[in-house]
Amino acid sequence: MIFEGALRRWFLPGLATPLLIVRDPIALWLLLKSWRHGLLPQNPYVSAFQVISIVATYTAVFWGHGNLYVALFGARIFFIHFPLIFVIGQIFDRSDVVKLGIIALLISIPMTLLVAAQYYSPQSAWVNRGVGGDINGAGFSGVVDYYRPPATFSFTIGTTLFYSFIGCFVFYFWFHQKEINKLLLIMATASLIAAVPLSLSRGLFIQTGLSFLFSFIAICRKPQYVLRMIAIVIGAALIMLIFSKASFFQTSVTNLVTRFEMSDNAEGGLVKGALGNRFMGGLIGTIRQALDLPFLGYGLGMGTNVGGFILTGDRVFLISEGEWGRVVGELGPLMGLLVIFLRLLLGAKITLASYKKLAEGDFLAWMLLSNGLLAITQGGWAQPTALGFSILISGLMFASLRTTTMINEKDKSQ
């Protein structure tokens, strides 16, 4: 997931198209191996999504857009990737999640150096090479001559998702410093602080704020951690003070502020624009939209970039850029709203379980929820990188609730 974009942009550009779904065979292999060992869960969520994907594939081909490949590309989300949430939750346990978090923080340090190199390099530079070796670059429009860097991912959304993922663990480890090397934690924290302005991403800024808010709520449940929160704030302030002396940081912060101002003028402010329209998902607008849609929708997969490219020859959003609007547009009012309801229900379930763990004094699931709740309820599953991060963080949330894996339990019973 992390290096798929590097393969598509730098090392195997000629295979950029098939590498778009390079994780699918791995996901399918994981499902088959889990099934062989009795670890493939068949709960109401998995069953419902499998039935919906089968019915939606049929209706898309015969009453929708009529393209089987587009329908199958959309169906793979529900049939192959979604069940991995529960597979991860059964094969991993809490200790595995902590180990993965440490590895992620290690990766964040060189990743930030790469992001900085991309930010200050022209789009024609090798580090900014686009998918398929595109010399026009992979950066997305930002501020003046500065573009949003894609890091090792195919597109800039990967940078936002990666550091949003990192942020959960950074806050968690500050409360549990015995589980990680302190120097690594400081360097990863500095990497996150530097990445926020370098990414030119309002989404990452907001997500980091959400993780901080979840930390504050956690402290309210366990006041003895107040001193650690104060230490986090002071440490972050010191890092920002050191960075503020460097011209590279001053430039990136100034550009991020400018981007906020530009977006405020275009969208009516942070709350109405980035939070209201993007993060709240536009549920009311989606319900209104559903009333004007064909009952069976326009066809599964049509709302994805790949579906749009196959159907029109251009990478466009044929239905909606918003996730809930895309789902209802593809599946129609009945199946589309059912999918949204199931995702909200699953989000509520993991929220309650995470809060219960928090009440018991375990912060891990709660901090992962700061990123995973939006991912599981209205994350953009149409985009492969966003889908990958959504499935991973959702699976890790379930795994963090377990102190013993299903594998170990089966061994004990035998």
Number of strands: 2
Cα radius of gyration in angstroms: 21 Å
Q: How does the major sheet shape up? A: 2 strands, antiparallel
Strand order of the largest sheet: 1-2
What fraction strand?
under 5%
Mean pLDDT over the residues: 89
Give helix % range. Answer: 55-70%
**Separation of the first and last Cα atoms:** 35 Å
Total helical segments: 18
Structural class based on helices, strands and sheet pairing? mainly alpha
Overview of the molecule:
- The chain is an all-alpha fold.
- 70% of the residues lie in helices and 2% in strands.
- Helix 3 runs antiparallel to helix 15.
- The longest helix is centred in the last third of the chain and has 37 residues.
Features:
414 residues, mainly alpha, two-stranded antiparallel sheet, 18 helices, 70% helix, globular
